[in-house]
């Protein structure tokens, strides 16, 4: 009896220490991490409506910010020479698919699911940063720029999200990172015949979730009846 009691107690302790089974998400679910560290699972149509509202708000804010940003450093010399940083566009969008799992096919009768199996790294980029004032960029982007003009965000794979692949389809987990891209010209020279040098800044943002640094952007299942799977956002195929 004592032996049976010990075995039963050991089984209870093992169950208590076991990790909870991760929730299996449906093909039309989208994982959205909030700025406060929370995670919300919503349907894809709900996410599209949310994105449409936020895009409209961002455009209004960007238009107001861009109107204030172009700054001109005018140096009156011979031929009225001047220097100006000109902002041409300031846009926000979801980047192309970033694979976070292998492709899984649900072509049998037993069902299939696919889980996040790896993180990814994206690098912010800038060209023309050798001609742009660092203080101007920091004011424009609202962030502190590294001296080299290039920095990297990384999404880790410490958390598992599992999606159910629909019957007769192939699928993989992807992320579509939020991107802000600003383009402009560095205008210099004589006022009557200035020279133009283009510049572009592409940046991502990060957010915290369960002590992980995530690249901001939705995580979802990209699925199709054909293989290789066409990109859900962008051009290309997943194999």
Automatic annotation (TrEMBL):
Instruction: Record the organism.
Output: Phomopsis amygdali (Fusicoccum amygdali)
Which named protein is this? Celp0028 effector like protein
Keyword terms, alphabetized: Signal
Signal peptide boundaries: 1-18
